[in-house]
Every structure is written in C-alpha cells, then in structure tokens.
Write a structure and sequence with these properties.
With about 475 residues, the chain is an alpha/beta fold. The chain has helices at about 10-15, 20-40, 45-60, 65-75, 90-100, 115, 120-125, 135-145, 160-170, 180-200, 225-230, 250-265, 300, 320, 325-330, 340-350, 370, 380-390, 400-410, 415-430, 465-475, and strands at about 80-85, 105-110, 130-135, 200-205, 210, 215-220, 235-240, 245, 270-275, 290-295, 435, 440, 460.
Length: about 475
Amino acid sequence: MRTTSNRFPESADAALTDATLQASLEQVRHVMPQIRSAATAQCDDFAQLCDRAADIRRTSIGALDRLLETFERAVVASGGHVHWARDGDEATRIVTGICAASGARRVIKSKSMVTEEIELNAALEVAGYEVTETDLGEYIIQLRGEKPSHILAPSLHVTLAQVGETFHARHGIERDAPPTDADEMLMEARRVLRDRFLDADVGITGANLLIADTGGAVIVTNEGNADLAMILPDTHIVVTGIEKVVASLPDAGAILKVLARSAIGERMANYTTFVHGPRQDGEAAGPENYHVVLVDNGRSDMLGSPFHDMLRCIRCSACLNHCPVYTAVGGHAYGSVYSGPMGAVLTPAFAGLPATFHLPQASTLCGRCAAVCPVGIPLPALLRSWRERAFDRSLTPAGERVGLRAWCFVNRRPFWYRAVTALTRTILRGRSVRDSDGRRWIRRLPGFAAAWTAARDLPAPAAHSFQSLWRQRRARRSP
C-alpha cells in the first residue's frame, strides 16, 4: 500500500486553508455526531449491543485460523472458490488471473476499502480491463482520478459544482454548460452506469463480514449497486481482509445492529445482502462463477502484537466523524486509504512505520474515538504505542525528542514539576485575552510552540492548578 503520510504536516496545512474542503468538513463535524447520537439514543440497549459486538469480534480474531478454514470449506461446498493472498501484489495477480480465465473485458466494482488498499483498479487497468466503480461517490472520484477522502463518503471533498464539471468533461454529452441540478446529475450517472452493469463480465465487491459456518459474505450498501454487481455478471469476486470473519449468522446479526447506527445513524443500511456461492440449479439469477480472495497484507503480523485489537475494526467511520483532527483536515491529508484514528493505527501496520510515523501524531488523544467505537477498540492507547515506537527508533523530529526528554525529567521530580508548571501557567495567562463570556484564550504562542496557535486559539490555563486546589481542599477538611 503506497502512502504519502510523511507529507502529512504540509498536507494538513493546505487542508486548513482550503475553503471548499472546510465547508464540507463543517457538515461532518456537526451532522454526523448528531445523527449517531440520535440513533443510539433511540436504542435502549445500545451499550449492551456494543459490548456484545466487541466480544464477538474479540473472540473471532482469537480463533481466526479455525474460522477461516471453516469458511473456506463452506464456500467450496457451495461451488465457490477461495484464494489466499499474502499481500496486495498477490491479491491483484489472483483477481487479474480470474478475469483472464473468464475471458472478461469489462469489470464493475462496488465500494471496497480493501481493493483501494491493494490498488486493484490500477492493476486491472494495466492488464487491459475496463473498470467502473458503481458506488456514486467512488464513481465520481474515479472520473476525477482521486482517492477516497472518507470511508463511507469517498467524494466528501467534492462540491456539487465540481461533480457537474466532471460529468460535463467525462460523459461526452453535448450541452452548453455543466449540469448544476443534483437530481439531473444523479439520473445522468444512473444512465451511464446502467449500461456498464449490463455489459460487465465480472463484478467485484468487498465484504463487511464473512460467516464461517455458512460460508456467507455480507455486503452492506445504501445504493444497491453491489447487488447488481454481484448478480448481473457471470463472475462475482469478493475481495476482503482475513479479519472480517465471524463464527455464525447470529454473530453477524449482532455486528450489523451496531454498524449502521454508528456509521449512518440508521437502524439498518438500505441493502444488506448475504451471498452464498454461485447460482444453484433452479435459481433465476446470480453468477455462474464465485470467488473469494482473502487478503492478509500485514494483518496476520498484527495478531498477538500490541495492535491486535485493531483487527476488530468494522470500518464504521465513527472515529473519523468524531475526531477533531480528521474533521479539521479531511482524509486526503493522511496520504492513505485509511484516515482518521483508525487509519493512523492501521496504515503504519500495513505500510511500515518509517513511511507513516506522522500519522500517530495526528491525534489530540482526547478519547472521543474510543468512546464512540462500537467494538471497543482502545484507539488512543494504540496511537501512543506507535508514538513510543517512533520515538525509540528516532523517527520523530530531534526537537520533539529533546522536548519529551526534558518533560520526562521534570515530570519525575515533584519540586521541579511544580515550579515549571507554575511559571508556565503565569506566563501563558499573561499572554491570554478574555472573550465576551469571560473565558481566557491564547491567540499566539512564540517560538517552537507557535504551531499550536497557527490555526486555532488555545484555552488559557486555569488560575490555580489541580494540585494546589486539592491541597487547599484537604487543608480545609483537616481537623
């Protein structure tokens, strides 16, 4: 998986000054947390459902080898084929080989983050296949030659006017000006994609879950495009990560109950489809050939490691939607398919820490990501673990390492800690200004600390430290 995350500081700076992007992110900041909160509030036992989902994912990852073998046997028994890919290159070779064996020329795809991860589209196009993304957001960014900026809303960064300009340039429809009406553009995309569906030889989807005991693949969408991609072509290929497997249908149902609520603020997605192999005798629709490509690509290395818990992720995007860093800079700044807190943990595991050490730093460690994760992944702890590794390997800037060592020295010595924090608090309060509500803010910090206030104001420290208030309260209670 290629990544440009070492350019995160520069990309983040550019994102902060991109007015169009900031307008889109404003909607994420305010709308997505609200709809999730409303959906979970309407579910009396949501916390219990999350506990159940976390237990299922924890148990599934703990028995991953056994469950995957059970899944393979069930798929083969239904007439399908299972392929094992150690990395992205092997996965793309397997998929292009299946396409070649089927005599395919045209391929349609539904949205799949794993296929983005392994850069499947590029590999298929190099091999001479015509590839069309059928999720509307993915289709838009495919026409624009861009990468997704969000797991669920890949074209989040694109305005309606830009969509119209893209369609005007790429669809070859004669008209005086680009379309501006959303419904008109939707119908135009539908007409173009309908022909692609009907002409396709191979349909490729991801999978939200795999069910071991039935050999089923669960595909969740809101547009129904995945259903057409798996039913109309003669060959259906599921490309997914090895960690997606659960033991049983009830386990899958428990995961689905928290997935849609966390992702889109709904009880269920519009389309939840269970696929069990190729078309059987007597069935009116479905593919003649069915393949599942199980992609490792660094996942097995995470088993038993400090990042083991990250394999529980169900890609709901709740952590992105609540992260103050992601909602300030968007997904493209991360230089990876996976962004936000989950991406800052996954990408170093997949692409290596030297190329991605900036990403774990892209967090305030406020804990909102862990609080909203429906499967209980301790994301702040995992981010800190990557930071520690980057520090130990001298990947972080020298100035930062010196500063952390100085802080460690002071923090271990109570006298110096109280003296330094008291002096710092006095200086910072002296540089602060009071707003109309009486709160004090620091508009600008000098020197190496200037970056903290380059794009935001910093709350001034309180007049009294917690320790001093605690000592005063204890003194008042003493007889």
